[in-house]
Amino acid sequence: MTVDGLQSETRTGKYLVYMADHEGHISIERAADLLNLGRRAVRRVPSRKDFTMDPEALETMIRADLARGDQPFCVVAQVGSINTGAIDRLDVIADICERNGLWFHADGACGAVGAMLPEKMEMYKGLDRANSVTLDPHKWLFIPYECGCLLVREPEQLRRAFSLSAPYLRGALPTEYTGLDYFEYGPEMSRGFRALKVWMTLRHYGVEGYRKLLRQGIRCAEHLDERVRASVDFERLHKPNLYIYSFRYAPTADQKATQLSDQDRARVDARLDRLNQHIADEIQARGIAFIMTTKIHGRTVLRMSICSHRTTLADIDAVFDALTQIGRELYPEED
Amino acid sequence: MTVDGLQSETRTGKYLVYMADHEGHISIERAADLLNLGRRAVRRVPSRKDFTMDPEALETMIRADLARGDQPFCVVAQVGSINTGAIDRLDVIADICERNGLWFHADGACGAVGAMLPEKMEMYKGLDRANSVTLDPHKWLFIPYECGCLLVREPEQLRRAFSLSAPYLRGALPTEYTGLDYFEYGPEMSRGFRALKVWMTLRHYGVEGYRKLLRQGIRCAEHLDERVRASVDFERLHKPNLYIYSFRYAPTADQKATQLSDQDRARVDARLDRLNQHIADEIQARGIAFIMTTKIHGRTVLRMSICSHRTTLADIDAVFDALTQIGRELYPEED
Fold first, then answer.
1. Backbone torsions φ then ψ of A136, nearest 5 degrees
2. What's the CATH number where A144 sits?
3. Of A183, A220, B33, B74, most Cβ neighbours within 10 A?
């Protein structure tokens, strides 16, 4: 942060940030907007089939941008993507950031807390090397809205960016408080005491309590995946690894129609898009469950984010049965 | 907001924002930091003796900056400055903004709500012409922390700046809700329901209830001013117009010492600076009142922000008597 910001006359090239082209959360674009970097400063790195960033493509892009005189400064890795819970290869991305002197930010809003599960630890390898990690305790820690959180390796870097002083803020009287003055470490001046609800809930559940709840959510997603695979009406889109699961209503007849012409394929796909949206609307309208759609590879699909600590396998069965029922009502065989 | 932000290659000159050089709140510098404009983009306009922005100086600066090829875009007027409650000449500033095509922002965090008092309305002339007004309901509306608020004339301008869409946010199902989707009008995505506490409190007090409380705060500041003027120990620094009042412990002997050499004057001033700080520390340490210091014209002074709806004239008397007592203890005549 210089006194001239991006308006410095000596600045050369563009500051660039990198994230996967699949499912990157729009909060990154919003941050680029706020920082006046422009949305084009968010460079989208090709993804692999498992919805994670392709590290080789990342490094190729960084090299090309550096060669053009631009200034790559940050890579945003996804730790639980919004549609499929995909976790980027954190260790490899950490290596790339290290080699190129870039800030390694892990967007763990959806999934970082899963790192507390020993059986999932392998997926999170490298998370401990991030310079900063986003958490959303109002997601998988079950805290009431709102409660965003940023963990940083070196708080002093935040202080250097945010510290401002003013005579009316100075307290000359020494107090017993030796902690941080948070207004010097972030954009907010007056702050509500959001940390209280987090602290209380952490104390209430404890690590073992949370592990139990997280496993319950994962088990629900796995169960949903089992139901999808066993069904002739739905198509599986990804392996479940956390609590977020996307899938598609696509009766077998349509799925198997590989012999269709491109034009017919497009027609069937467009119809299934409308149908999936219709099913999501209908299950909401009937008051059964709050299920939304999202896009995967350009197609409208159903998405379930099982992040209530009260959701059980029986709930999953009830919702899945309702989805099946609604799909068949809306898509009679004679249609 | 362009796709390239401040990194656009076609950008010429610097974007500049203007505010009074006296007492401008650091939130404006923070905003300049966040937007990567750089703190130097905040141009400080000379103030008049009453701590308000000098409109002629403002227009002169704007013309000079335009002539140099820079891009003035915003003027921040103070509506209740942090140390003295000063209110800039809003109508004149509105004219200047209109003539030059600039955004007229009124920083009313401390004082804008005073506009509800008919007897104070004259001071607020022109406030209704602002493009945006900052309110801090946690200040003079007595709402618990935190509760910042921005009023804008044309919400569509916010939507154009902040709107982002994502497939996982789209709700295709029509609902009865016809209001704004706030995540499209500001930086936050998930938002707590802060408006509830404001709405409830507004309903509870009503306009007449608030007028009574605001007048009580103003009356307290006026009473404090009367005590200061009647005292031989304190120096008056400004007329009280709202609930914020700054004054200085400066026994008459020192105040009257106009025949002092510059060097002696500086020595006395430095001593009074330490003394005022010491008095503020002491009244806090004794648990009597929370009074802080600030700087006015470079000197350390006492500042009282009487924005609790429970403060009475008797409290003011008790605090003022304690300040006098502490001052005399710390500054015995033989010293």
1. -120, 85
2. 3.40.640.10
3. A220
* Cα angle A79-A84-A89, degrees, rounded to a multiple of 5: 35
Residues of the domain holding B175: 5-198
Q: How many domains does chain B have?
A: 2
Which residues of chain A, if any, have pLDDT below 70?
1-2, 168-175, 253-258, 333-335
- Cα–Cα dist B34/B334, whole Å: 52
In terms of phi and psi (left: phi > 0; alpha: psi -120 to 50; beta: otherwise), the region of A85 is left
Contact A162 B35 (CB under 8 A): no
Q: Is residue B237 part of a domain?
A: yes
The ipTM is: 0.86
Strand partners, B245: B304
Residues 6 or more apart in contact with residue B74 via CB below 8 angstroms:
B17, B18, B102, B103, B104, B105
Cα distances (Å, whole numbers) of residue A306 to A146, A214, A303, B168:
18, 10, 10, 14
Q: At what angle do helices B90-100 and B55-67 cross, to 10 degrees?
A: 20
Q: Which two tokens stand for residue A280?
A: 């999501």
Same domain, A181 and A240: no
Same domain as B320, residue B190: no
Q: Which of A36, A167, A292 has the CB atom closest to B5's CB atom?
A: A36
The model's pLDDT over A209-267, given as tens digits with 9 standing for 90+, comes to 999 999 999 999 999 999 999 999 999 999 999 999 999 999 976 665 567 788 888 88
A164 within domain boundaries: yes
| CB proximity B39 to A under 8 Å | yes
Residue B24 token pair: 């401008």
Nearest neighbour of B168 by CB, restricted to A145, A191, A303? A303
